[in-house]
Each structure stands twice: as C-alpha cells, then as structure tokens.
Amino acid sequence: MQHETPPLVVHLLHRFDTGGLENGVVNLINHLPGFRHAVVAVTDITAFKERVRTPGTQFIALNKPPGQGFWLYPRVYRLLRELRPAVVHTRNLGAMEFQLPAWAARVPLRVHSEHGWDMNDLGGVSVTNQRLRRIYGIGTHRFVALSRAIETYLTGAVGLAPHRVQRICNGVDTHRFAPASTVPGAWPYRRSEHIVIGAVGRMQAVKDPLNLVDAFLHLRELCPVDWPRLRLVMLGGGPLLEAARERLAAAGAARQAWLPGDRSDVAELLPQFDIFALPSQAEGISNTLLEAMACGCAPVATDVGGNPELVEPESNGLLVPAQNSAALAAALARLTREPALRQRLAEASLARVRTQFSLAAMIGAYGALYAGRSVADGPLASTAP
Questions:
Q1: Domain span including residue 203
Q2: What is the mean pLDDT of the chain?
C-alpha cells in the first residue's frame, strides 16, 4: 500500500539563530505531526539547527547581503516551484517580502507571523513599515499575531481585515521546562546560600541587558544586608555581552555574576533561578518568560508587548516600565526582601503556564491553520478559537 507524502511547510525567516522566534519554529517542527518541514533563511543558518529533532527537515540558507532582497525573488520562486510546499510561513518584516514570490509560485497557503518589534521601530510606529506590511501582505492568506498588542496593530495601524488575522500565543513544553530538585554540574551557585536573579536572551539592544546590569548593581544600596548573597546570571550571547561583563567588572561585582554566553542547557539551568528578569524594550509573547514561569521562577518583566498577557501584576509577577533601571531594581529588591511573595508569585506563574500556555494548544492551533484550505487568494475560514 502506497503512503501519501505529508504536506511540506516552508518556514521562511531572516536568520536561523538563537532567539525566541527561532525557538518557536523549533518547537513547531519537533512537535507538529502530519507535516514535513523546511527552514529557509534569507541570510544564514547557524548551529541552532541542531535543536531540530525531526528527521528529514531541510535547511537552506540564501546568504543575502544587507539591502533589499528583490534580486532574490527569482531564486526563491524557483526554489518554491521545486519544493512544492503546501504552506509558506514567513516571520517578521525581514522575511515578509518573500510572500511575493510565494504568491507568484502559487503556494496554496501563505501565512505570515508578527512576533514583535526591533529597535528601529519600537511599537510599530513607522508609517513606512506599516505600508510595507500592507504591500507585502496583499497575497497573504492569514496573518498570525503572537500577542493581543500585535493583533491590534495589524488590524488597526496596518489596516488588515480582522478575519485575516489570528492570534496564536506561544506555548511552552512543560515536560522539558519544569521545576527540578537536581542541580546541574555546570551551575556555579548554591540555593541555600544565594539568591539568583537570572535572564535568558540574546544580548542585543532591544533586549536591554545593560538595564538589568544597572538594576542589579543598584541592589547594593537597596538591599545591603542581602547584597553578599545576590547573584546575577545572564544566559545568551550577542553584541552587548562584553559590555555587560565590563560594566559588572568596573563596579566590582564580576564575582557575583555569571555571563557564560550561549548555552545549550537552558532547560536545566532555568530551574535554579529564584527571580527571572525580562528587561526588554519590546516583546511579542516571550518564549523565555514562559519557560521561566514553567520552571517555577518569580518573574519581573517590562510592561511592553505581550508581557502583560503573561504577567498579571501582584498575581503571578511584577511589571515595570521599560528603560527604567530604578523601577526594575525596586521590583527586584522587593522580591529579594520578601521570600514569601517570591514563592507565591512563582507558584502562580507555574500554574498559569500549565493551564493557559501549553505547547499542545499552540501546536493544535498551527496544525489547524496549516490544514486549512484556500480558494485563490480569498480569505480562509476562520480558525480562531
């Protein structure tokens, strides 16, 4: 008996490297049954691809230099005609223009996701970028917004019809990311002696890691009794990693911090955090915040993007204004001085993830979306819950 070949989904993104967006793609590929997958990166593909465990997944790098990608359209068109995918799924503005060759190649279902904003357009205020999204999205069947704020942006400022926009929040693998009683050998601190404030994310401007460094250093004045016990852990590489290390060293706090760069064992290290700090200037639905909540950490996050959808102030965490190291330090100091509050928020965050942000719900939503059928370029039947 001949078995039908599963439909192919092409995930087309700017670069396949360490990051929350890419981590979401990995989760989708690893857990979504009934589909084959290919990852096409407009620029390059890094060793991050080793996290994909689904056999037969293809990885294709287009190696585009900086600048407009119009000259790549014929190559992408030919590639899509060769691969014959059932779905092309682009992500963020850096890859959205390739919806045009996907339309020309008559890919049956064309999907575009918006995950958040970069430093050059915080909050999506650029009228030029709004216009580009309208133009590139002319032939796109469905837009996926990862947060309520992005959904409002797409149906408001960008001007998309609401029936073309679907909100699908990230989900977290609560089996992989969970509280743990064992301490990994790489962990440098002792739970009985130290209070660990941790962060996970690429060390780049939009994530604002130096804001967290400044807030941590401010705890020396806010929590003088607890200061000798406090430790800062920042997992992730990037252009601001050395600047963060240098700022800590200049303040005489290097021995109280561990900034090892990129790590492949984040799931084992996260449960060792007491407090998880997310100082970003912009976010969609943060994978790392969800993972930290699933590991039993008490979260402190900036009040941007989708963070308020994950953290309800005083209920399961604390929210602070972005780019405000004093406010971030005050929230961290509060959780440092009040262990009972820290424990309550951690337990509430764990419960919130398990009931509202499961990986199964996310996978089910994308599976239903990818299985949808389109007629020409008309709207799909809504798959929104």
A1: 195-356
A2: 92
